[in-house]
Amino acid sequence: MPGRFSRRNFARLAGLAGFSMVSPAAAKDSRTSAANEKSAPASFPDGFVWGTATSAYQIEGAVHEDGRGPSIWDTFSHTPGKIDDNTNADRANDHYHRYKEDVGLIKQLGAKAYRFSIAWPRVFPNGDGAPNPKGLDFYNRLIDELLARGIEPYATLYHWDLPQSLQDRVGGWRSSDTSKAFGDYSGYVTERLSDRVRNFFTINECGRFLNFGYGWGIDAPGLKLPTGELNQARHNVVLGHGFAVQAIRAHARAGTRVGLAENIAACVPAIDTPEHVRAAEIAMRELNSGVLGVILEGKYTEGYLDYAGKDAPKFNAEELMIIGSKIDFVGLNIYTPQCYIEPKDKGAGFHILPFPASFPHMQSKWLLIAPETAYWAPRLTAKIWNVDTIYISENGTSSDDKIAADGKVYDLDRIMYLRNYLMQLQRAIADGAPVRGYFLWSLMDNFEWIWGFEQRFGLYHVDFQTLERLPKLSAEFYRNVIATNAVSS
Ligand code: NOJ
């Protein structure tokens, strides 16, 4: 490769400058590496969709503007003691006013796609009833700006910011009235945006917001429901997804594609043997039956219903049909595995292994480092449910990003993390996993829910006083991945 700054070139240049610069050991090393040329970078398929992702509440701010109604996250973040650093997202990144600048940041990365979410309470301040056209106008402006700059919009309809009014009046996702309202909202939005947006995600991470928000009480709306009621809320959420799919088919332009973005409970075979892989496959189907499984199979597994016993959700055949409405793609949010699996002769056929306390993690303690998740999650998803189109709808990491004395952010741990996950993703695709695109979480630092602004996931550093955006070294790393359509180890 002309101009490549290889070790061989370095040795040659150093040699010209004087023998004293190269020790005998280094000279020997340079001969060895000359013989072992670097392997080719791992390429992604032509047309692979490279993007970044954000969500409305985490970046928009402007919570009282243009008729937006309150959401459960406004209420929750304003409740003392709920957010680690006592912040809220009233202003956040002020993206509502700075969206043009932010689209410019995406452009600088060379990314071809952007996944953002639409705030339901901007469009229907009360969740249902009268729409607020001014709220939708913001997304019209954003979408037009993206398209003008050659970036394809991928819109998520629900990223956790439920209109507070629905929580107050019907109990939020505890009631199927919310499922119906979500269907109506989805039909309204997609009818108006699908002339320019071709891909919609219905719901983001059912698994997280249900368990955290309705089970453990640590996310909005802060409920600790008994298991039976939590399972019913989960059923109402997947029913809402189903209503949304049907409404999109009925109201959006023909050819509009719809899927969801799920933090799948990723089961990784502890060892790559056929028996371990088979056990991981069984485990992944069972552990995801409550959301992805019922959506893709139109039924809950017997294992799921047996395990729930008297706490199983109440449902009828028509609801299962709605939930199982055909979707066009599956979005997987990949961060960390749910568990490692080994085979077991008895019972369900798998054994969930405990994590040793020394298992490494990124800055966020929950973010265990397991790049092979990016290999097994798409492969097993495709196999178990016969899925032919997968997007990695999120992948990324927090990092202790500080601005160095020279004004730059050297987020080497993020680069290490991304490189290793992307290498595994490339391997999955090479082995046949139908992954068509990747959305890096996140474009810029933002409001990381219960952790406030303390955990930074962005490719761009944000100073939350001045709101200045600054590219981190990882932005340059990702720009290179996109430009070369490849990643090298
Ligand atoms: C998944 C969520 O969708 C997103 O909102 C969150 O910021 C990232 N994970 C990082 O925790």
Your description of this structure?
This protein has 18 helices and 15 strands. With 489 residues, it is α/β, with parallel strands linked by helices. It has a single domain (51-487), classed as TIM Barrel, CATH 3.20.20. The strands form four sheets. It has an eight-stranded parallel β-barrel, surrounded by five helices. Strands 7-9-10 form a three-stranded mixed β-sheet. Strand 13 (460-462) and strand 14 (469-471) form a beta hairpin. Helix 11 crosses helix 15 (317-323). Mean pLDDT is 94; it is low at 1-24. Bound molecules: 1-deoxynojirimycin (NOJ). 1-deoxynojirimycin is lined by residues 55, 58, 204-205, 333, 394, 441, 448, 457.
CATH top level label: Alpha Beta
Largest sheet features: 8 strands, parallel, barrel
Low-confidence region ranges: 1-24
By DSSP, the count of extended strands is 15
Distance between the termini: 18 Å
Q: If you compute it from the alpha carbons, what radius of gyration comes out, rounded to the nearest whole angstrom?
A: 24 Å
Rounded mean pLDDT is 94
The ligands found in this model are: 1-deoxynojirimycin
**Strand residue content:** 5-15%
Q: What proportion of the residues is helical, as a percent range?
A: 40-55%
CATH topology: TIM Barrel
Number of helices: 18
CATH homologous superfamily placement: Glycosidases
Number of domains: 1
Structural class: alpha/beta
